[in-house]
Amino acid sequence: MTFFARLLSKANGLIGALMLAIVLFTACLGAVWTPYDPLKSDLLNRFAEPSMAHLFGTDMFGRDVLSRLMRGAWVSVSIGLSTLVLPVALGTLFGAAAGYFRGWFDRLLIMVLDALMAFPGLLIALGLMAVMGANRYGVIIALSVAYLPAVTRVVRGSVLSISQNEFVEASAVMGNSRLYTLVVHILPNCLAPLIVLTTMMFGWILLAESALSFLGLGVPPPEPSWGNILSEAKAHLIRYPLLGLLPGICISLALLGVNLLGDALRDELDPKSGVAPSKETI
Amino acid sequence: MKKNTRIFATLFAATVIGCAPAGAVMAQSVVHMALNADIRGTNPGVTRDGNTDIIHAQFVEGLVTYGKNFEVIPMLADSYDVSEDGLTYTFKLRHGVKFHNGEEMTAKEVEWSWNRLAGEASESHCKNYFNGENGLKVVSAKAIDDYTFEIKLDRPYAVFLATIARFDCGSMGVLHPDSVNADGSWNAPIGTGPYVMGEHLPGRYVELNRFADYVSRDEPMNGLGGGKHAEVDTLHFDIVSEGAVAKTALMAGDLDLVALDAMAASELKDQPGFKVDITQSAVWDTYLLNPNDPVLADVRIRQAMAHAIDPNQIMAAITEGFGKASPSPVPPMSKNFTEVEAEYPAYDVELAKTLMKEAGYNGEEIKILATRRNGAYYERALMAQAMLMDAGFNATLEVVEWGTQLEAYRTGEGYTMQSFSFSPRLHAGLSFEMFTGDDVRKAWQDPEAIALVQESLTTRDPERLQAIIDELSRRFNEQVPAIGLGHRMLFTGMSDRIEGFEDWGAGVLRGWMLRTSN
Amino acid sequence: MYLFVVRRLLMSIPTLIIVAVMIFCLVRALPGDAAIMMLGGNIDDEATLEMMRQQLGLDQPLPVQFVAWLRELFSGNLGISVLTGQPVGALLLDRFSVTATVVLLAMASALIVSVPLGLLAAHRHNSRTDYAIVVLTILKLSMPSFWVGLMLLVLFGAILGWLPTVGFVSLSQDFGLGVTYLILPVTSLALSEIAVMTRMMRAGSLEVMNRDYITHARAKGLPERQVLWRHVFPNAFAPTLTMVGIAMAGLLAGAAVTETVFTLPGLGKLLVDSIYGRDYPVLQGALLFIALIYVVTNLLIDIAYTFFDPKVRLT
After folding, report:
1. Cβ contacts of B313 on chain A, cutoff 8 Å
2. Under an 8 A CB cutoff, do A216 and B404 touch?
3. What is the CATH number of the domain that holds B376?
4. Percent of the residues in chain C that have a pLDDT greater than 70, as a whole number
5. Whether A208 contacts chain C with CB within 8 A
6. Which of B292, B422, C11, C253 makes an SS bond possible with C290, Cβ 3.0 to 4.6 Å?
7. Are B19 and B87 in the same domain?
């Protein structure tokens, strides 16, 4: 029985990694080559049915749907990846500092984090986009701010629990500085939960980006992202369901890859943590 | 695909109609309509916005109002005279006009109403049209006798009557002084219109009831004026912000008459049990060009852009084929719309390319600003972008939300071109004035054009007016301060039990024309 | 217990103040204001615009407006919507009741389904049933709920025509009709929650099942059903409950996307509309209300925790 379980855990890792690789490949391909220009409209050829010329047909502006989905993969994935940078870097820094130094800094940080968490990501996104101008950097920064508390909390928690260990005390007894102990002994031990969280977070960000774009607050059109392809299709769904079906399937496949891989990673690296694939938080 | 769609649509319709509440037959006739936002208040010209004005127009009337082709016609005035020098306007009032409280209207109430809106203490923006803030100053406005009211101006002003008739001021609506409380605060409107303000449940609905003692003019109905013979007892407006919701409610039989978008109209057109009214409005859909943008400083670049964009294709796409291009700012229903106004730069990509080359265009960015909002701002911008790119322009599209775009419009910053719309201006001079002037938001800042527009607003000679409008139209096509697209199509869907509905260029509902069969 | 509640509520005051300041700054950083929105493309002159601002109270300097807002807030007055003139407090409660109906129904149905399902999966660990549940939940987790909602809408609303596609009728208005409007949004929300909670419940139960006291209970010869419900369930439920709480706080605070898909007049939709309309009093009130929901829900979770996990003590 355990053999099967292990096999399955390997299978989910394998399938997940494979799916994610396909998505990443499509994204990279979409960045440099698509069958048609994804922004090029052709008003005489609106809502074309799938054909050899347009594998998935054309949309309400006569643009090639396949090309838009491919470029959309690039936009969504690149936003997902760049959004990870800031929360992981800053979150680790803040979390480690709070968990290790404790005291007033910790209390203040928790208070600000609480306030941030009680603050709808929607408004952060809109407010920042108003300040930054409507572009993908606004989305990236807004989502970074929205996910900063999650990373900070996980790192802080790990540092707190690792600090209880004897080897930390031992390091202090040996006369190592606090900073040295933090960097050399404590932080490497936080890596496992951080990797699991980062993987899962990539999925959350993909979802959040598509939700924001769906509400018209994400990547501004005409640049395709999976979310705004879906959003543009919304008005025409009843007549042309395929337009809405396809971007949804793309998002779902990418997320399935992330979730499967994330599950497998967690089982391997950090079985105790409760980090779970999550739904959109917006 | 097409056949399937129809089957689905019919099935869909059949099911929702099946859910419609029983008991639609009532002793009192009611027409259920949708209002896309709650009214801001019941005080015409004060607590208002475009949406609220429609409700106000049902219960308040002014001395003059707009006819079908945007000519100014008398409403509460029986007739009016303008002195030789154009400075004195004398209004002879109709006899026997009743306020909703049963009292007869006299010049006394007219004077009180004028001061309420145009007086110094007025809370209405309408006073700015008459206090010198925008040029014109009303020197005096007073009752001469019971049925004569006189207004004196500091200068001749050809669009004075058109200004009085403005929708946003409730046509400088005449109300009974009991509409306000003893302390001067607003109570409830006591107007003269064919409907009386009824129940208003904030966020839910607004009701208007038929005014049984309404005394109609003898002429046939004409625009917002003429004879008004209301028959429907109650006009019920549900507040429904989503167009899709309103459409569904119409199909379910919960609403009788709703505004639709082009897509919904083409779907509903052939469905049994429903009618669709398609009317061209005077709302001008256009692309404003930023007068301060260095890239556009060369007139040849602007001309190239105009030649690169095909208004016909774009209008056909955004109206599902119901509308066609009418790029002139002057709406086709205007009496000043002639062959000259019908002309516009031809769609000619080769010519555009030649002009670009001559002007030395070298890939400078043309940033198109648009918003996702009813009125196809985004769709228009996207299609223009594609056409500009075809001609070799480096056109980019920036989609912002409406508030941000309005701020860009007001400050004249952050765009090269923006898709925009202007609500109906009911005088050909005002059709140019709305985007001509020296304010930063105005697209056309040519001093000669500004002078011509000013003259069009003061001249009282119809031939001179036509000459000015023609001259402005020619210059507009030559200087391209904006690239016109067309005048928006209005689609109204209704159940076939509604009779008599007819939309018009101003798009303001006239509840008194409605009839119900059944 | 009583002390704990009071202390927690006091602790949340600074959080709420930070939120209030952030809200105010962010909201006012948006370009445009309500006066411009009302005039739209018909800004005839700056004098008119100024007059509108004056009427809407937007002509005061920002700090003055902020202090005025705070002062009103402390006297329990959230202000009046600049767009519709409705009192903000009443408006919020009205919209919240819609959101709460949908969210509570979705949560309740999700709990009813996912607790037994999670226990079952854990009980039949590594069986086909278990695998099926695991695969199905991860599949559902990978689908955006708004997309699933849209597809449900197209299928049941448009293609099959069984249910209304847009709009909302409150239960108190017309119960039968109201239910038909609730089915799709509740289902779409519940499906996502079922996926999350079933996984939590399964993981929690698996962990508990390996503990000594469960083995002990089994050894005593207790029937399996009793072992599951009496011993496994309460211990495995605590982490699930946290999840429920967090999800509920998020959803009550406005399931903006779901409300947009199904055009429900809820809190999330109000928030989005007030952002677009620059209706500052409504926007500020709604955001503060949302922050409050977070604080209260978190408090309730902590209290509920003590009932399920005796190890946790309120201090």
Report:
1. 43
2. no
3. 3.10.105.10
4. 91
5. no
6. C253
7. no
Rounded to a whole number of angstroms, the distance from the CA of C245 to the nearest CA of chain A is: 13
Touching check for A7 and chain C: CB below 8 Å?
no
Mean pLDDT over residues A41-52, rounded? 84
The answer to whether residues B407 and B360 belong to one domain is yes
Q: Which residues contact B78 (CB under 8 A, 6 or more apart)?
A: B92, B93, B94, B95
- The shortest CB-CB distance from B404 to any of A41, A49, A130 is to A130
- Kindly provide the residue ranges of all beta strands, DSSP E only, lying in B261-349, ordered along the sequence: 274-289
Q: Where does a domain end: B178, B208, B230?
A: B178
What pLDDT band is residue B8 in, cutting at 50, 70 and 90? very low
Q: Which residue of A has its CA nearest to C17?
A: A115
Contact between B252 and C164 using a beta-carbon 8 Å cutoff: yes
Averaged pLDDT, B198-220: 91
Looking at the structure, do residues B69 and B140 belong to the same domain, yes or no? yes
- Please tell me which of the candidates B41, B404, B421 has its beta carbon nearest to residue C32: B404
Verify whether the Cβ–Cβ distance A239 to B313 is below 8 Å: no
CB contact under 8 A, A41 and B386: yes
Give the type of residue at B292: N
Q: Quick check: A44 contacting C, CB < 8 Å?
A: no
Domain-embedded: residue B268: no
Residue B183 lies in a domain: no
Lowest-confidence segment of A36-45, A128-137, A170-179 by average pLDDT: A128-137
Residue C294: list chain A partners with CB under 8 A: 117-118
Q: Global pTM?
A: 0.80
Interface residue B276 vs chain A (CB under 8 A): no
B344 and B483 assigned to the same domain: yes
Task: Give percent helix, percent strand, percent coil of chain C, each to the nearest 5.
Answer: 75, 0, 25
Distance CA C76, CA C57 (A): 19
User: B399 and B309 in one domain?
Assistant: yes
- Which domains, ranges and CATH numbers included, belong to chain C? 88-308 (1.10.3720.10)
Q: Say if CB B136 and CB B130 are below 8 A apart.
A: yes
The Cα–Cα gap between C284 and C307 comes to 36
For B299-337, write each residue's pLDDT tens digit. Answer: 999 999 999 999 999 999 889 889 999 999 999 999 899
- Domain count of the fold of chain B: 3
Range of the domain at B383: 280-488
Inter-residue contact C15 to A114 (CB < 8 Å): yes
User: What distance lies between CA B16 and its chain's CA centroid?
Assistant: 33
Q: Do the Cβ atoms of A41 and B310 come closer than 8 Å?
A: no
| Beta-carbon contacts of residue B194 (< 8 Å; ≥ 6 apart) | B58, B210, B211, B214, B216, B228, B229, B230, B511, B512
**CB within 8 A of A59, min separation 6: which ones?**
A46, A47, A65, A68, A229, A232, A233, A243
Q: What is the mean pLDDT of chain B?
A: 89
